[in-house]
Amino acid sequence: MANLPQKVRVVEVGPRDGLQNEKQPVATDVKIEFIERLAAAGLSTIETTSFVSPKWIPQLADAEEVMRGLRRRRGVTYPVLVPNEKGMRRALAAGADEVAVFTAASETFNRKNINASVDESLDRFQPIAELAQEHGLRMRGYVSCVMGCPYEGAVEISKVADVAGKLAAMGCYEISLGDTIGVGTPTAARTMLEAVALRVPMEQLAVHFHDTRGQALANIFACLEAGVSVVDASVSGLGGCPYAGGATGNVATEDLVYMLSGLDIETGVSLQELLDAGAYISMALGRQPASKLGRIPRE
Ligand code: HMG
Ligand code: MG
Q1: pLDDT tens-digit profile of 194-232?
Q2: Model confidence at 102, in pLDDT bands (50, 70, 90)?
Q3: Domain 9-295 has what CATH class?
Q4: In angstroms, rounded to a whole number, what is the distance separating the alpha carbons of residues 248 and 83?
Q5: Burial degree of 198 (CB within 10 A; 0-12, 13-18, 19+)
Q6: Which atom of ligand 1 lies at the shortest distance from residue 179's CA?
Q7: How far out from the chain centre does Cα 299 lie?
Q8: Residue 247: which pLDDT band, with cuts at 50, 70 and 90?
Q9: Which sign, positive or negative, has the C-alpha torsion 289, 206, 181, 119?
């Protein structure tokens, strides 16, 4: 019998990773309703928006309005992405309760995504870490391109472990390992995770698989067996990074929750309400849900 966790914390990234990749503008009140539906479905961590440059990600230029309009639910955390001190100050002013910094295991991707080398980005996170500590906010860290880079191809596992270790040393309570372009396969994913866990305890690691090649659930299963218990996902399979050519959505939260429930792993998420949230945002975007479950006709 596989060695699997009893509980998994699902980190919903749809409102951020999902919507950042949508070209058509999504109204602020639709975003708010979407986030509130996700919270009602029982998700305890919902990445809400990004305080990045509106020139780089115009879709999330309404970050302040989203935070202002949101009715927050007790017990739910609403992390936001911040790339630099300016973003952190905006996030603090908007009353964020958690922030996430993001860098990569690939120099070229990082330059295209945040216009900085990996070391420069880590330097930029230092004032964010200090402000987070001063204001009592938790800080999460992302490492992108952990299974490969759209520009450089193969990425060294030692680089992933090194960057993850530096983020943890800077005070990130959790490091999310991002297969940004969905190139990973299960054994490789597990090998990468186990190597990083030699630097950062497994309890502090999360996995973030984009499903570009249909490998995400298999990769997640392999990583659950290796001991991870925090998994990022995006309802309706939304997502992708505009600065990672060819990247498509994250693993769909509905499909993930279905698999976890079949494995008797607790998530606290109501699949029906999650499907409703997926249908809601898909309708707003004018398309069918991209999750497998969302495509099964319902009574
Ligand atoms: P830059 O152009 O080098 O920034 O961009 P700069 O410091 O030179 O500033 C240029 C202008 O932007 C200035 O304004 C700044 O004030 C403004 P101007 O004087 O020209 O009017 N600016 C800002 N405005 C608002 N908020 C800010 C901010 N910072 C500067 N925070 C920068 C550098 C980091 C800002 C930019 O590259 C950026 O915002 N990048 C974000 C890209 C992004 O969000 N990518 C997607 C998220 S990452 C992802 O999806 C991967 C993940 O899911 C994991 C995975 O899948 O692997 C997390
Ligand atoms: Mg992502």
Answers
A1: 999 999 999 999 999 999 999 999 999 999 999 999 999
A2: very high
A3: alpha beta
A4: 22
A5: exposed
A6: 57
A7: 31
A8: confident
A9: positive
- Domain ranges in the chain are 9-295
**22 Cα to the center of ligand 2, angstroms:** 13
CA distances from 157 to 125, 137, 154 (A): 22, 30, 9
Ligand 1 atom closest to the Cα of residue 114 is 37
CA of 289 to the centre of ligand 1 (A): 29
Q: Is 286 exposed, middle or buried (0-12, 13-18, 19+ CB in 10 A)?
A: exposed
